[in-house]
């Protein structure tokens, strides 16, 4: 009986801590979303003293959203980002998954050395080599183009690592059985291995999506004209050009923040599975 | 050459063919740039020279920037890892609805660093920011935040930790989930308390996950650059002028590519050195 009370008490305490951390985690997001529905004048007017009105709009307005899409053509960077991600995610998944397949199911000379190269390459983030990469992409004539944005991001070592670890968990005799049934490599891959790997495909796709959606430094360097600018770069320009129009920034930031959340929430079950199977246990 | 011989050769080539696309991308877009930046930082007018470095090492701004980067990371990396570990331990409790909280803790990760920077910059604004409004409730006067040379760097640390910890939490959680529960039970039967179990059982068992988190966190944070670029532009009084921002300024504002290349090389060497130290330290833990 005493133990039970103790357990209930510690559970209550745990939930209290959960709620407190949740408030810290969510406050900035709720704040910008709410602020995006009010005018600049209103935000400033109720800043002090602190009350509910400091956070919750008094006069709800959609003007900020209307204006960023009409006057500031925010639709263009939004579309650009979707195009870039739409091309990048499938290519990256394909490249990473077949590499993972080779590492998981084959024995070959230089395997360990190659695997180390892959791992090291993903430890070196693109940002650290942004400068020489820029000179190189410039030489290729890809500055200010979709391919300039896409190609340097294809080598996601993290996705390849996730695939390798996940594939290692697939029993080899599944593949043997398929081979005996006369399936060729492509059939084994697309009909057996990939269908078994839904969590890791979703995890890798989500990670690549979020990384690219949020990518800032590289698109900042490699895009020159508004025609190919991605969402994060466009957002940064907002601030430079419109120091005073906070509410527009809030509206654009809300769009940027909400898209990954909407994608992530329904898929979070797979995401946890995908990361957990990455072999980082014990 | 008979057909079975040919077939065997094809079989042998298959893994290499499968790796070829990934390897090409890595060679062209990762390894080549690293090599080229390092080599180029030693070349001026087609000659091998240390001149770029000797100029750099006499540059006060560089040393100040190096110190800022190190100071920020010596606080931020341990802080983030500690918070992430606590978060992971919290959400590894198998209580009802824990999945919902796990997702909530992860949500800041999905926010772009640029958006987080701009948002926190506005929230921590001296005049109209909501943080000053909230502080006024507790009778705390107006804070300078990003405009105060004493506070700006630490505001960046707070913001980056808010955004980053959920990500590392996931990897530590993955490690925790792999631990056999019976190990906890037997330790508890032996009379071990919570902290003894944590330090003697849990932490040694998740060392792979921790090593990954420590290493990846280090390289990510050493390159943190967006808050400086978007909120403070290196100021006030150069207090947030991290090395990565110096690279950006040298290359794209002042057109000084050799200086930018040399700083990039130094950053890479620093990251590799820190990673090696971390590997050594954490592997030693394992032996003991």
Please explain how this structure is put together.
The complex is a heterodimer of chains A (282) and B (288). With 282 residues, chain A is an all-alpha fold. Helices cover 74% and strands 0% of the residues of chain A. In chain A, helix 1 crosses helix 15. The model of chain A has no long low-confidence stretch (mean pLDDT 83). The N and C termini of chain B lie far apart (56 Å). Helix content of chain B is 76%, strand content 1%. The model of chain B has no long low-confidence stretch (mean pLDDT 86). Classes of the chains: A mainly alpha (282), B mainly alpha (288). At the A-B interface, helix 1, helix 5, helix 6, helix 7 and helix 12 of A face helix 1, helix 4, helix 5, helix 6 and helix 7 of B.
Number of DSSP strands of chain A?
Answer: 0
Oligomer: heterodimer
Structural class of chain B: mainly alpha
Per DSSP E runs of 2 or more residues, the count of β-strands of chain B stands at 2
First CA to last CA of chain A: what distance? 36 Å
* CATH topology descriptor of the largest domain in chain A: MetI-like fold
| Sheet having the most strands of chain A | none
| Gyration radius of chain A, rounded | 24 Å
Sheet/helix structural class of chain A = mainly alpha
What would you say the CATH architecture of chain B is?
Orthogonal Bundle
Strand order of the largest sheet of chain B: 1-2
Q: Give the CATH class of chain B.
A: Mainly Alpha
């Amino acid at each position: 009986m005493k133990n039970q009370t103790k357990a209930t008490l510690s559970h209550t305490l745990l939930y209290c801590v959960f709620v407190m951390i949740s408030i810290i985690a969510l406050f900035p997001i709720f704040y910008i979303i709410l602020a995006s529905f009010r005018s600049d004048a209103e935000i400033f007017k109720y800043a002090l003293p602190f009350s509910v009105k400091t956070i919750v709009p008094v006069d709800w307005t959609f003007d900020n959203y209307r204006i960023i899409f009409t006057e500031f053509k925010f639709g263009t960077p939004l579309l650009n980002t979707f195009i870039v991600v739409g091309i990048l995610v499938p290519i990256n998944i394909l490249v990473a998954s077949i590499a993972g397949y080779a590492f998981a199911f084959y024995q070959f000379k230089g395997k360990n050395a190659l695997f180390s190269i892959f791992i090291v390459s993903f430890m070196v983030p693109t940002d650290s080599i942004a400068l020489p990469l820029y000179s190189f992409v410039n030489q290729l004539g890809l500055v200010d183009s979709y391919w300039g944005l896409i190609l340097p991001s294809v080598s996601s070592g993290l996705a390849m690592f996730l695939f390798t670890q996940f594939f290692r968990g697939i029993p080899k005799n599944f593949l043997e059985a398929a081979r005996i049934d006369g399936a060729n490599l492509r059939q084994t891959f697309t009909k057996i291995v990939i269908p078994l790997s839904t969590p890791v495909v979703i995890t890798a796709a989500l990670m690549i999506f979020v990384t690219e959606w949020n990518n800032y430094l590289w698109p900042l360097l490699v895009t020159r004209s508004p025609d190919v600018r991605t969402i994060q770069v466009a957002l940064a320009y907002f601030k430079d050009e419109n120091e005073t129009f906070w509410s527009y920034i809030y509206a654009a930031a809300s769009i940027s923040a909400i898209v990954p959340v909407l994608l992530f929430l329904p898929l979070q079950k797979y995401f946890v599975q995908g990361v957990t199977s990455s072999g980082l246990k014990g | 050459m008979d057909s079975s011989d040919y077939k065997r050769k094809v079989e042998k080539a298959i893994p290499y063919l499968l790796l070829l696309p990934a390897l090409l991308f890595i060679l062209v877009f990762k390894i080549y740039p690293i090599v080229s930046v390092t080599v180029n930082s030693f070349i001026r007018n087609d000659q091998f020279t240390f001149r770029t470095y000797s100029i750099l090492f006499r540059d006060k701004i560089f040393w100040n920037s190096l110190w800022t980067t190190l100071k920020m990371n010596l606080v931020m990396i341990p802080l983030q890892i500690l918070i992430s570990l606590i978060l992971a331990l919290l959400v590894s409790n198998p209580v009802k609805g824990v999945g919902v909280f796990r997702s909530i803790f992860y949500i800041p990760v999905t926010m772009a660093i640029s958006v987080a920077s701009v948002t926190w910059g506005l929230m921590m604004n001296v005049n109209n920011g909501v943080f000053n409004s909230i502080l006024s409730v507790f009778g705390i006067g107006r804070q300078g935040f990003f405009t105060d040379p004493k506070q700006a760097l630490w505001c960046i640390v707070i913001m980056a930790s808010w955004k980053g910890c959920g990500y590392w939490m996931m990897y530590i959680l993955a490690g925790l989930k792999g631990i056999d529960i019976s190990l906890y039970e037997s330790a508890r039967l032996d009379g071990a308390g919570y902290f003894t179990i944590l330090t003697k059982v849990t932490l040694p068992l998740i060392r792979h996950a921790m090593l990954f988190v420590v290493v990846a966190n280090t390289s990510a944070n050493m390159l943190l650059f967006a808050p400086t670029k978007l909120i403070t532009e290196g100021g006030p009084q150069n207090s947030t002028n991290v090395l990565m921002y110096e690279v950006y300024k040298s290359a794209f504002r002042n057109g000084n590519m050799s200086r930018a290349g040399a700083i990039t090389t130094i950053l890479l060497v620093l990251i590799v050195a820190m990673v090696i130290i971390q590997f050594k330290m954490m592997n030693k833990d394992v032996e003991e």
